[in-house]
Amino acid sequence: MDPNPHLAIIHHGPVFAQTKPVYACDVSNNPGLKNLSFCDPSLGLQARVSDLVSRMTLKEKIGWLVNSASGVTRLGIPNYEWWSEALHGVSFTGPGTKFSSLVPGATSFPQVLLTAATFNESLFETIGKVVSTEARAMYNVGLAGLTFWSPNINIFRDPRWGRGQETPGEDPVLSSKYGAAYVRGLQQRDDGDKDRLKVAACCKHYTAYDVDNWKGIQRYSFNAVVTQQDMDDTFQPPFKSCVLDGNVASVMCSYNQVNGKPTCGDPDLLAGVIRGQWKLNGYIVSDCDSLNEMFNAQHYTKTPEETAALAVNSGLDLNCGSFLSKYAQTAVDRGLLNETTISKAVSNNFATMMRLGFFDGNPSNQLYGNLGPKDVCTAANQELAREVARQGIVLLKNTEGSLPLSPASIKSLAVIGPNAVATHTMLGNYEGTPCKYTSPLQGLNASVATVYQQGCADTKCVTAQVDAAKKIAAAADAVVLVMGSDQSIEAESLDRVNITLPGQQRLLISEVAKDAKGPVILVIMSGGGMDVQFAKDDPKITSIMWVGFPGEAGGGAIADVIFGSYNPSGRLPMTWYPQSFADTVNMTDMHMRPNPATGYPGRTYRFYKGPTVFSFGDGLGYSEFSHKLVKAPKVMSVPLEEGHVCLSSSICKSIEAVEERCNSLGFSIRLSVKNVGEMRGSHTVFLFSSPPQVHNAPQKQLVGFQKLDLEAKGEGVVRFDVDVCKHLSVVDENGGRKVALGDHVLHVGNVKHLVNVRI
User: Fold this and answer.
1) Distance CA 49, CA 69 (A)
2) How far apart are CA 526 and CA 434, in angstroms?
3) So which residues are the catalytic ones?
């Protein structure tokens, strides 16, 4: 999960001697366990959990409040390690997963931000399905657990955040759809049993977490001051969707405080919202060592026992770290925590393990028992990793006659830049050992003859090797510059101060472009956006592509787009800001909305009032697509109950979005979309709404998106079902959902349509 500096993580651990999965209730080797109700799969979940917990001592229960859970030999329960990760493939972060000669690698998909750029909801789920199959296969040979602390669904609020790369971007609708779909892919079983889990996912980091280490301000003690309005319309929706739409098995609380309270010790946020309002079916886990940080960095309580009690009493079930194993017993002894509350916490943990089949005896007799090394890194899975990267790559600039390049007419291609030979960099963080790598240079080299120059010793590019690079550029038919960042520039525990290309990268790019005789393609491999206004404005730089951290097959996907075997269709899931934003806006200011009085410009495309380098949703292809409105209403009337104050008042600007008046308040929009180009391609259709400007509403917000694939000159119809209360509502200053009265402008591409919502 979030390796704290205090924790030593060994990425490539020793080969596990054990080649069998860890499980409880091994009745074949221990027939006495047959008589224990918790080992009887025919009984109901609650009865089994109650039976198990009733048999345990307090000390044994405390052993199951921490990630490295202690076995209870007398009950046939082995040790279990809860901490495994699967952000974009089975990861070696966390002690629960290891690679060995038996399974040397797993499919490494693009880092999440690039996957989000596909705007392909079904693809998010497909990736989850593949990752969970590989995870189960590794579990069966003793190399992985069954509980994976992914996905990260925090909002990418500030371009400097080192972990923005792990998220689905800045938009709550996209993040909500991504989170729920990826969770379904990880968790849903192929037999349709809704009560059981393939693997258990975890949505993190709850909540308003997006500052790691900026100018010395550390996530471990940062207090995020957030308005109720921003909380409910920006930070909370992805988590709500994860629980309600994804039925996620776990939520992880974050390191930071929100409005002066540590999230892992806030009963309103944990017991109140996650369990109370959203009815989580699963367990709540702390970020790793966050209880330690709550006590030692935040000094939130006077004693460690008070911290332990606060967390468990607030609704925490599992502590990543050892804090509860050290202090829960003394917290009980001092009367700060009672055993009933601990029993409730471990019951949530055991219920999750039972849904995973951990207490059903030998996994080889269960649904996924036949999976093994043969099911990891299959040809189909590796091809999917390449396909996801292809669909995510975003073409941001393309001068006529630049891309796609024709392999037949390129006799020599100059490939320049520190990321041209990237392998490990392509994975991003929370990576595992991949099946294999295809670097950008290898990908390009498969189609044409290349000449390569590093240009910079590394991405920091302290001194650019300009002359050598210019020389090969001047002699080549075309130039591809592969620039950007890596984990030394933007990472967990490392936020950026500058959002420009590092070091002398800009100098290298501009100098090479001056001498190049053919097209110059700038490929930016990075997590966050970059201020590349200079390249956008330079006519000699004919194309710009953002490729995120594109995963193990990234180089192949980059070549597929450059040479036109794939028509790019990715769209930016985040705003690209100019450096002036980073110079003037405090990263720790959590306000989403602009403040004209102070000149604060606001954040993300929904609220930001300032210049951008590229905007949310930007992206070009090799075909143009046209949109035409086929059907949409012009007026929607909201039924109000008799005596409602707004019936007799003309000053009502909005009405509460309550169930009784929302049920039948919907309409559909139909659009015809045509590929007017000469090449087959995919196209993302965005439906945005600009609500009436009441309650500091967003200037524009995403209602939905759909991706369709069309042959050259082909046409298709897209239908959006709009629920007025869900999609056209805004959140007021107190966090309440309101339907704004007046004209809502719906936009798709350059088509605009007015819907008047009235009473």
Assistant:
1) 16
2) 19
3) 287
